Amino acid sequence: MVFGQDIGIDLGTATILVYVKGKGIVLREPSVVAIDKNTNEVLAVGQEARKMLGRTPGNIIALRPLKDGVISDYTITEKMLKYFINKVCGKFIFSPRIMICVPSRITEVEKKAVIDAANHAGARKVYLIEEPIAAAIGAGIDIGKPYGSMIVDIGGGTADIAVISLGGSVKSTSLKVAGDKFDEAIIRYIKKNRSIVIGERTAEDIKIKVGCMYPKTVTERMSVKGRDLISGLPVEFEVTSEEIQEALQECADKIIEGVHSVLEETPPELSADISERGIYITGGGGLIYGLDKLIEEKTGIPVMIAEDAQSCVAIGTGKALNHIELLETGNAVKIKKF
What we know:
alpha+beta, Nucleotidyltransferase, domain 5, Actin, Chain A, domain 4, 3 domains, six-stranded mixed beta sheet, flat, disordered C terminus
């Protein structure tokens, strides 16, 4: 029986990570829910539900209740949060305090949806922290100092780009171009160029294994299966890293454009700091081969991929829990309490 734990949640479009104060990351599961359409009953959550994507009969749907970094299905998100909170906390006398990370350009309506969902799922208090700030903390950057740090956090739904100084975002942007859009671009490319339809999970596998945004020294190949649009029959074919680079070109251009736009609006003193300290990439989407090389080539600024990039936001959200008491009085790290 637990007496009101402090929990940090990276409420990702593709993956949910839960950090418990004093324990670290205790849960990492896909943000997928399977429900029975006839009864609205939740049949599976997380990894079990992900296995059902694209493989369900008519009465069952497996869906992602978060889209582009925000809640698209409030009721299902609430049920999913409740499931994960109960899984982590078990039985508790006092409800947990929960800190949730949100995209930097989230609207007030979208914020309220996150807060309400967490409250109804069993939170005692809910705090919000911007994703780039959480990512910076998780990457080991001391965000309280008076110098500029640039974070490019690419998750499943959004790419958050921000310049951080003295505990807050000086300039930021949030692009709806991230891991999910990479998958969609691969599906579109193969459909257009090969007349073959592939599923989301296959596209994700291609992205992870041969995906790139910068030419690889050796062309990599991968054998995958799909459905031929002309014959309607299953077909096995080969894709190369060069093809996937071409498929992801538009996504890469948008991310570079976002980095440029934030740099252009950054005060000169902070620009000098970034030029000296470099740009940090965090998030699972940022691990795609060559993105760091591409940003470095286009900006002339050194680029580093943070250690354990996929977990940075969750780790940072969890670390920020240590300062809740301070933040309730002197809001130094742009955390909002509700």
